[in-house]
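During the no-cost extension, the postdoctoral fellow (Dr. R.K.) reprocessed legacy sequence entries with the updated structure-token encoder. One reprocessed record is reproduced below for audit purposes.
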Amino acid sequence: MISRQNPIYPKNWKEDFLKQPENSWFCDIPDDYIIESFNLTGLEDKFSYFDQELQVLVNKKSITKLADSIRETVWNELPILYGSIHARFIISPDGINQVKEKYNRREYGFCPRISCNKEPLLPIGITSELKKNRVKGFCPKCRGVYRPNPVVEIDGGFFGPNCPHILVEELNLRGKYREYKPYVRSAFGYHVYDEKIHGADNISN
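Re-encoded structure tokens follow.
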């Protein structure tokens, strides 16, 4: 947290941002990806001082060197700009590799379903729009979407809905779904059917 009375800004914004525990789900976007204009299409008009913010992201300009009149706005918009670029980066080849490494290290947590036996989760945003939902975890085994535990306070739009489905193909995880065996309710050795799900015809008289 930056104090308004005695601000101490980091020398390298991106490095400082990524080392914060609450940002551990983010990948490290290479500078050459950040400055490639094709990767930034449609973003420029969404930020007040786009060029200056890019310079800070790639550490070509210190935030302390910005004019006092724009410094606070730039500081507040930097996480949003990084997150917006991040959603695009993680579906690029290099981004997929970084997510894959985090998945293999179980950094996104585990599926809470007992029948999934702690299957590692992949990150997913319910929508690409910002300020709609927090990021969630997608289980490639049961194909459910879950709130991380503990909760991760990152906008789901910074990940988007496409990443886990690309990773399922990249990691050959399709077979995980065939392994999934959902819990079936039973009493005295007989399955208990729900009429609303299975219909009255499936209930023995």
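Residues 1-6, 197-205 have pLDDT under 50 and may be disordered. Residues 13-90 form a domain with the protein kinase ck2 holoenzyme, chain C, domain 1 fold (CATH 1.10.1820). The remaining legacy entries will be reprocessed before the final report is submitted.
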